[in-house]
Amino acid sequence: MNASGFLSQLLQLGIALLLAPLLVGWVNQCRAWLQNKSAPPLLLPYRTIRKLFLKDAVVAATASPMFRIAPYVVFAAMALAAAIVPSLATDLPFGRAADAIALVGLFALARVFLALAAMDLGTAFGTMGARREMFVGFLAEPALLMVLFTASLISGSTLLPTIVDTLAQRDLAIYPSLAFAGVAFTMVSLAENARIPVDNPATHLELTMIHEAMVLEYSARHLALIEWAAALKLFNYSCIGLALFLPFGIARGSADAAAILGATPVLIAKLALGGLALALIETLSAKMRIFRAPEFLGTAFLLGVLGMLVNLLLGS
Amino acid sequence: MTHVPLWAQLINVLAALLLLLAFAMLAQRRVLTLINLFAAQGFALACSTAIVAWATGQAHLYGSAALTLLLKVILLPWLLHRLIRRLDVRWDIEGLLNIPTTMLIGIVLVVFAFNLASPIEQLASTITRSTLGIAMASVMLAFLMMITRRKAIPQVIGFLAMENGLFFAATSATYGMPMVVELGIALDVLVGMLILGVFFFQIREQFDSLDLKHLEKLKEGE
After folding, report:
1. Rounded Cα–Cα distance for residues A297 and A288 (Å)
2. Which of B3, B6, B19 would you mutate first to test chain A, the one with the most A CBs within 10 A?
3. Partner of B169 for a Cys bridge, out of A229, B14, B127, B135, CB 3.0 to 4.6 A?
4. Which of A197, A74, A222, A77 is closest to A136 using CA atoms?
5. How far is Cα A286 from Cα B92, in angstroms, rounded to an integer?
6. CA distance A277 to A237
7. Burial (CB count <10 Å: 0-12, 13-18, 19+), residue A288
8. Which residues pair with B92 in a beta bridge?
9. Are A137 and A104 within 8 A, CB to CB?
10. pLDDT digit of tens for each residue in chain B (222 aa)?
11. CA distance, residue B221 to nearest chain A CA (Å)
């Protein structure tokens, strides 16, 4: 625990909060390019959030305090997760606050609050969206845990900074278990972030939406917080994936300020490439029926378990 | 951590790929894709055998690898493709269980196979002994595929995939069987395939379908 630890912690949290909407804008722009559409401006998510913060909030007369609290809880959970996930450096004072399992719990907390708020008003859309979200969530969570367990088995710890530290200093080699876990993690991230094979982030068609259906009743600052939290969730998942499977260029151990600042452009470059890959996946795949989601996430779970078993068997 | 040589990494990757392909075959709904997956599994097997041959200097394993390539990547898939074109069966396969359940049973089988293989691994002295568990798992997954499928062609592909697994087990436990045995098995598989091909036509002529549940009845008109 020292000054550089706090510097990296602050810098990491600041970067996550500031860059998360940019990542969403970048993914949208890449997707528009790939689909031969004229791209929306890169900074559009920032403008949307600013516009929403300036508006007056409208809350339904039947809404309970739960409905008002939920956006703040969701945003806080995502911000805390952003502080825990080692994206820039592994020497994080917050890193000891929660391990990988608690991190999954943090995501679950946000999901439960959002689903409860969606059910709060008793509208048909909100309830349907909440049910679908929980349906996807309960299938995605075990798969995510299996991926994290695979990484924990390799490093012998469930603390994310320790895991990333171990993974970053290994020899450059092909690890089948990590390859399985990587594919599983990609599938889970697509499902959790309401991306195309499972949900369509760009549609307001009633039959296809999951995430959008839940936040339909929100307006102004509440909606701004929820949109920002969704962007942060995407950012967090990208950072977990990058930290576990491409941990190069991260500042390890008690690094000095220069190393931490040097890790920033590496992270941004990796995120830009990751966003491009996400846009590519979304362009190449079609949205599946909601009842195919168990198969999709079942495959992710299978790959996660296989990763763990192969790691136990081959020791790599 | 000790440095793992490249060939060992490659064998591990191919073994993992073999397991993954076994699961992909278990989950596959279409007959055509199933045949392509079977060919891919054969290719992974041939590659891993060739790498083991190169790493250990066992010249006869090159022969096995070439045999696998010729038989399981080229000849058998070609025969199967020709067969389904002649039979005109490109329908979706219906399993007895739904796919997620089959996958979960598959995971249990893999755990069982890995446990079963661990004492044998400690006795074996080959460089590839750690992949024995994967070989046994692919044999069991092929078994499961034969059990859960109702149509004749997927069952035959399951049988051939099981032979893939056995071959991989032989390579990883004892650097392969003697060449005579291997040639014999290869011929058996080929002849078995041809006979089963004739069988398919007979079954279809008799029942107008390749669904094997018709064969479960002993008498007609019950």
Report:
1. 12
2. B19
3. B135
4. A197
5. 20
6. 14
7. middle
8. B30
9. no
10. 456 677 778 888 888 888 889 988 888 878 888 889 999 999 999 998 888 888 887 778 888 888 888 888 888 888 888 888 887 766 666 666 778 888 889 999 999 988 888 887 777 776 677 788 888 899 999 989 888 887 778 888 888 888 888 888 888 777 777 777 778 887 888 888 878 877 777 777 777 776 777 777 766 655
11. 39
Q: Which two tokens stand for residue A50?
A: 């600013």
Residue contact A294–B100, C-beta within 8 A: yes
β-pair partners for A221: none
ipTM: 0.75
Q: Give the rounded distance of the alpha carbon of B208 from its chain centre.
A: 28
| Other residues' Cβ atoms within 10 Å of the Cβ of residue A66 | 13
Count of residues making up chain B: 222
8-state DSSP, A204: -
**What amino acid is encoded at B177 in this protein?**
M
Is residue A310 within 8 angstroms of chain B, CB to CB? yes
Closest CA of chain B from A102, distance in Å: 26
Token pair in block for residue A262? 């040097």
- The answer to whether B15 and B165 have CB atoms below 8 angstroms apart is no
Instruction: Write the burial class of residue A260 (CB in 10 Å: 0-12 exposed, 13-18 middle, 19+ buried).
Output: buried
- Taking the C-alpha atoms of residue A8 and residue A164, their distance in angstroms, rounded to an integer, is 15
List the single residue in A295, A305, A313 with the smallest CB-CB distance to B100: A295
Nearest CB among A294, A305, A310 relative to B16 is that of A310
CB A251 within 8 A of CB A259: yes
Q: Please name the residues in contact with A178: beta carbons below 8 A apart, sequence gap of 6 or more.
A: A150, A151, A154, A244, A245, A307
From residue A256, alpha-carbon distances to A6, A45, A158, A160, A251 in Å are: 11, 33, 25, 20, 9
Nearest C-alpha neighbor of B153 from the set B186, B109, B106, B201: B201
Cα-based distances in Å from A156 to A162, A237, A284, A304, B116? 9, 22, 37, 17, 25
Residues of A in contact with B144 (CB under 8 A): none
CB–CB of A176 and B107 under 8 A?
no
- CB < 8 Å to A179, chain B: 13, 16
Exposure b/e, B66-103, CB count within 10 A at least 16 = b:
ebbbebbbebbbeebeebbeebebeeebebeeebbebb
CB contact under 8 A, B99 and A305: no
The nearest CA of chain B is from the CA of A229 a distance in Å of 32
Packed helices A293-314 and B99-123: angle between N→C axes, nearest 10 degrees: 0
